[in-house]
Amino acid sequence: MALSPNPNIFANNPIDRAGHLRGNPEWLAEKRKDPSSLFVPLWNLNPLVLPEEVPSQGKDVGWVPAAAVEPLAGPGAIEVFLGINRRGKALFAIDISAARNPEAEGPLKGFGAFEEIRGLAMKGEITASELAILAQAKAMIDWHLRHGFCSACGAKTELAEAGYKRTCPSCHAEHFPRTDPVVIMMATHGDKAFLGRQKIFPKGMYSALAGFMEPGESIEEAVARELDEEAKIAVKSVRYHSTQPWPFPSSLMIGCIAEAESEDFEIDGVELSGGKWFTRDELAAALRGEGQGFFVPPPFAIAHHLVKAFVEGW
Ligand SMILES: [Zn+2]
């Protein structure tokens, strides 16, 4: 049975991650050589994207065979097995940051452009399924590039398990890809919900509050602590809504809606520069693009879906 769809961009990854094959070097070597296997090259963490064939019909990810990327990758390039797609093809991500200018020279010259995936998500130029695969690829390559040395002894580590582990040849420590949980939440009280503003937000934008979870903390406790720290809002209960993989570099946004004890609040002036309780009708208007003097984040942000859930009576 398939999972019911998650409303968030970067979720709903359609591939079979095939974890049981990561430790099978013969199978992986065979698939690497198989011309039907597909590689997405990432240059400075940006994937190759092909230009639109038909104007405003969207762009495609630049999936290419190994032969097209190997000359650019250089020795020891990071390569990760992503999984198997619905057509049974093995998918890989490969770091080609060693290349000087792969858009203008070498085997990928003229293929397309290396584009930042947050921008692709904002513009909606790539299908949601492909964005989810790119999120996996970007988070994995990014992790390897930042974890080249053992945190226990300082020696250089080596890629293992098709990219899902790094091992230390000196002290034999094993290191696994990180996911850093972040709680993102909206406090509600009756017919109102609280949204805040940060100084860096575009003028007029209000959004859900957010913060990193701390070790030894439950999701509910992190939600209550963040609302208290940033806005002095006291909560009675916390409900989980949905999660969003957020590969910048390795977060998982955990969306929650919390029931506040009252509408009392006090902005901390550090994390938040403003905040306000909005009625359900005001938020419904904002979702339609008719907010009176304010707006909420667009659908590529989980905050949008928290607001939408509240408006719909979730
Ligand atoms: Zn070590």
UniProtKB/TrEMBL annotation:
GO biological process: NAD+ catabolic process; NADP+ catabolic process
This protein's UniProt keywords: Hydrolase, Magnesium, Metal-binding, NAD
CDD domains per record: NUDIX_NADH_pyrophosphatase_Nudt13 (cd03429)
Nudix hydrolase domain segment(s): 177-301
Keyword Nucleus annotated: no
Entry EC number(s): 3.6.1.22
Cofactor(s), by name: Mg(2+); Zn(2+)
Source superkingdom: Bacteria
GO cellular component: cytosol
Reaction(s) catalysed (UniProt annotation): a 5'-end NAD(+)-phospho-ribonucleoside in mRNA + H2O = a 5'-end phospho-adenosine-phospho-ribonucleoside in mRNA + beta-nicotinamide D-ribonucleotide + 2 H(+)
Family matches, as InterPro entries: NAD-cap_RNA_hydrolase_NudC, NADH_PPase-like_N, NudC-like_C, NUDIX_hydrolase-like_dom_sf, NUDIX_hydrolase_dom, Znr_NADH_PPase
Main enzyme class: hydrolase
Gene Ontology MF: a single term: NADH pyrophosphatase activity
Family recorded in the similarity comment: Belongs to the Nudix hydrolase family. NudC subfamily.
Protein name as catalogued: NAD(+) diphosphatase
Native species: Tepidicaulis marinus
